[in-house]
Design brief:
- By secondary structure, the protein is of the alpha/beta class.
- The chain is built from ten helices and 18 strands.
- The strands form six sheets. Strands 9-6-3-10-11-16-14-17 form an eight-stranded mixed β-sheet, with helices on both faces.
- Helix 6 links the parallel strand 12 and strand 13.
């Protein structure tokens, strides 16, 4: 299923992203991350097949700003229970695949994104999709930790993750208006499970099971994070790594990943709408490069605000 991008260094697989949509999803919680991922490239200065030139600025020439479809980083697919699904604001999206197909092809996807929105309450009440899809994706990583997978929620989408119980023993955040509800759902999930609690953090976004390369000088690695006074570690930009290209090739990485919770599934939860933009830029930085994320933010004239990384592994 995965497409392949060509670079001077050889082919690079396009990262496959699945958006799981429910009736009443938040339109901006879908469109924001989608816009960021669609603008991300593995190589931002590739003049071989220019698609667009952003324009000149006093600091940069147009040659510096040419992107190529040959290095496109992400390919996005929409899944829903029906052929078309409507957001809380009235935006109707045509699904690429139905939920049953999403379950069948789940192993083809590298990233699963769960937008929030007003419809989350109905999903919780009816115990409906995408709850089973979320659980299946997490189980897939546990059973096969050889692949680098990411589960990301936007806004109140984290309430759905909490309902499935996969946030036990993790740290997470949600829209600020729902911190208390999030804590209640997490405590209920802990009682149903093995009693592990969830650290609900009042942060922009929270990353569990991050990946980075330590490098020779730890003090120069932006993913070796310093402790906050309250014990949390602040999240800052990274210089980039080859985690996406190399992680499936190194047996020691697979073993270390398997030892982490959820088989090393990268788990990202974000707060409100703009927090979803920030978390999406983090995803670009983590899976492509920090430079690519910075370029996307520049093109969108957006100031990237960092979140919190609570776990990391040198892959």
């Amino acid at each position: 299923m995965s497409a392949v991008a060509e670079t001077p260094d050889g082919p690079v697989e396009v990262i496959q992203v699945l958006f799981a949509l429910h009736p009443g999803f938040g339109a901006q919680e879908l469109c924001g991350p989608l816009e960021i991922l669609s603008k991300a490239y593995h190589k931002i200065n590739d003049p071989s097949k220019p698609v667009y030139s952003i324009g000149q600025s006093p600091q940069r020439s147009s040659d510096d700003l040419v992107c190529s479809v040959e290095t496109k980083a992400f390919e996005c697919t929409f899944a829903a229970a029906s052929q078309a699904v409507t957001s809380s604001s009235g935006l109707t999206i045509k699904a690429d695949i139905d939920i049953n197909t999403a379950h069948e092809d789940l192993g083809d996807y590298d990233v699963l994104i769960i937008p929030g929105g007003d419809g989350v309450e109905t999903v919780l009440k009816n115990n409906s999709e995408p709850l089973e899809l979320i659980k299946a994706f997490a189980k897939l990583q546990i059973s096969d930790p050889s692949k680098e997978r990411t589960l990301m929620s936007i806004g109140t989408g984290s309430l759905l993750l909490a309902q499935t119980g996969i946030l036990q023993g993790m740290a997470a955040t949600t829209h600020p208006d729902y911190y208390t509800k999030m804590e209640i759902i997490c405590k209920d999930a802990a009682r149903r499970g093995d009693l592990e609690q969830t650290d609900v953090m009042e942060e922009n976004y929270v990353v569990n099971n991050a990946r980075f390369e330590l490098g020779e000088k730890l003090e120069e690695n932006p993913f070796v994070l310093s402790k906050r006074p309250d014990g949390r570690r602040k999240s800052i930009a990274r210089k980039g790594s080859n985690a996406w290209k190399e992680s499936v090739k190194r047996r020691e990485s697979n073993a270390r990943r398997a030892s982490l919770k959820l088989g090393g599934l990268r788990l990202i939860t974000s707060g409100g709408i703009t927090s979803g933009l920030d978390a999406s830029l983090y995803l670009v930085a983590a899976m492509v490069s920090h430079e690519s994320a910075q370029e996307v933010a520049r093109v969108m004239q957006y100031s990237w605000n960092k979140g919190v990384t609570v776990e990391g592994i040198d892959v």
